[in-house]
């Protein structure tokens, strides 16, 4: 039986994700923004947490850990262990972990914070990206450099096109408004904005998205795109500089 993926809205605009394996009864939580909605989802489904995976140390990603961790193993970044809740397993880029018989690979995706990791499950094709690669955006650079984030996003962009990008926030609509300013002729982006408006009006989530859709529409994955580069007047600039300029404009947007 395939793993079940459940998206849980938390706080004002966060997402947490559950991955459940009916065969073993194991359930993993990816990020713990708060307790109540996660506990309610577990209770409604009769699931018990066996694992909690953490992408980075910000309170809106770890605050529920203390209440939810009883009986579960908590897994996070070796490089950020000092700022995360106490970890049962610390992992760094290149390490992998087995959950419900499926490999969970770790990528360092520093930029938003230093020590931010992403978890990739090649079996079902899920990537839990926290505040690194987000729907139509990427996390603000609180600690890392643009070069670091550009490199981090490059690792995620190399995953298979049908990978589900399970990111940490419902920022897609406002991200998209900015995306249109640097990529105004992108037909796939315009079509996606229509879809986003429809989804939000219906009270639905825009997360997760597919990597293929992000590559076609997310300006932070499109530093190689001729029309975006022309829009920025950076036809001949290195991709990392195009990324940095896009990020700078987003910060000022
Ligand atoms: Zn964050
Ligand atoms: Fe966040």
Plain-language structure description:
The chain has 253 residues and is α/β, with parallel strands linked by helices. It has one domain (4-252): 4-Layer Sandwich (Metallo-beta-lactamase, Chain A), CATH 3.60.15. Helix content is 33%, strand content 25%. It is built from nine helices and 14 strands. The chain has helices spanning 36-45, 59-62, 65-68, 146-157, 172-182, 187-201, 211-217, 226-231, 239-252, and strands at 4-10, 14-21, 26-30, 51-53, 73-77, 89-91, 96-99, 102-108, 117-121, 126-130, 133-134, 137-138, 164-167, 209-210. The strands form three sheets. A six-stranded mixed β-sheet has the order 1-2-3-4-5-6, with helices on one face. Strands 7-8-9-10-13-14 form a six-stranded mixed β-sheet. A two-stranded antiparallel sheet has the order 11-12. Helix 5 (172-182) runs antiparallel to helix 6. It is globular and about 55 Å long. It binds zinc ion (ZN) and fe (iii) ion. Residues 56, 58, 61, 112, 131, 139 line the site of zinc ion.
Question: Ligands bound here?
Answer: zinc ion, fe (iii) ion
Domain count: the total is: 1
Order of helices and strands: EEEHEHHEEEEEEEEHEHHEHHH
How many runs of DSSP E, i.e. beta strands? 14
Number of helices: 9
- Strand percentage, roughly? 15-25%
Summarize the structure.
By secondary structure, this protein is an alpha/beta fold. The chain has a single domain (4-252), classed as Metallo-beta-lactamase, Chain A.
SSE layout and pairing:
Elements: E1 4-10, E2 14-21, E3 26-30, H1 36-45, E4 51-53, H2 59-62, H3 65-68, E5 73-77, E6 89-91, E7 96-99, E8 102-108, E9 117-121, E10 126-130, E11 133-134, E12 137-138, H4 146-157, E13 164-167, H5 172-182, H6 187-201, E14 209-210, H7 211-217, H8 226-231, H9 239-252
This protein binds zinc ion (ZN) and fe (iii) ion (FE).
């Amino acid at each position: 039986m395939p793993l079940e993926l459940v998206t849980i809205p938390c706080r004002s605009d966060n997402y947490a994700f559950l991955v459940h394996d009916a065969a073993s009864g194991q359930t993993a939580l990816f990020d713990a923004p708060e307790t109540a909605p996660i506990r309610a989802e577990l209770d409604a489904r009769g699931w018990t947490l066996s694992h909690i995976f953490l992408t980075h140390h910000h309170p809106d990603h770890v605050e529920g850990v203390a209440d939810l961790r009883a009986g579960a193993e908590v897994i996070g970044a070796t490089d950020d262990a000092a700022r995360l809740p106490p970890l049962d397993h610390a992992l760094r880029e290149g390490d992998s972990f087995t959950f419900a018989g499926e490999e969970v690979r770790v990528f360092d995706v520093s930029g938003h914070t230093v020590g931010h990791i992403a978890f990739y499950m090649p079996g079902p094709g899920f990537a839990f990206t926290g505040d690194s690669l987000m729907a139509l955006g990427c996390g603000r650079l609180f600690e890392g450099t643009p070069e670091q984030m550009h490199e981090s996003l490059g690792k995620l962009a190399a995953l298979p096109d049908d990978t589900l990008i399970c990111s940490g926030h419902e920022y897609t609509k406002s991200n998209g408004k900015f995306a249109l300013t640097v990529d105004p002729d992108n037909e796939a982006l315009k079509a996606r904005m229509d879809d986003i408006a429809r989804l939000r009006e219906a009270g639905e989530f825009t997360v997760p998205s597919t990597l293929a859709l992000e590559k076609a529409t997310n300006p932070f994955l499109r530093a190689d795109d001729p029309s975006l580069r022309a829009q920025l007047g950076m036809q001949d600039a290195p991709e990392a500089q195009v990324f940095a300029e896009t990020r700078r404009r987003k910060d000022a947007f």
